Amino acid sequence: MDSKLFYKAMSGFYDLIDIVYFRDYENSPRKAVFESIGNTEKVLDLCTGTATNALKIAKLKPLSEVIGIDLSKDMLQIAQGKEEY
């Protein structure tokens, strides 16, 4: 399958996969990443997908600058539709 088609198909339920994969926050690699970011860091979230991490970092570290990029327009469209935290 072409990668563009794959991510177009995945974009509809990507956040559900994220919830299942990271359901145990205490043992999640996400916790280690969040805790390693300082309060005023500049963060580049490569392959941001639907921007779940970028938005959570922005919420937890309001003085940081967070930029999320992704090649999938479908994922970014969903990210843009999310309410800010």
Order of H and E elements: HHHEHEH
Strand content: 5-15%
Can you tell me the CATH architecture?
3-Layer(aba) Sandwich
Tell me the domain tally.
Answer: 1
General form: globular
Question: What would you say this structure looks like, in words?
Answer:
This protein is mainly alpha-helical and 85 residues long. Helix content is 49%, strand content 12%. It contains five helices and two strands, in the order αααβαβα. Helix 4 (52-60) links the parallel strand 1 (42-46) and strand 2. The longest helix has 9 residues, at 52-60. The termini are far apart.
Please tag this protein with its features.
globular, 85 residues, two-stranded parallel sheet, 2 strands, mainly alpha
What's a quick, concise take on this entry?
The chain has five helices and two strands; from the N terminus they run αααβαβα. With 85 residues, the chain is mainly α. The termini are far apart.
Task: Please specify the SSE layout and strand pairing.
Blueprint: H1 3-10, H2 14-21, H3 29-36, E1 42-46, H4 52-60, E2 65-69, H5 73-81
Parallel strand pairs: 1-2
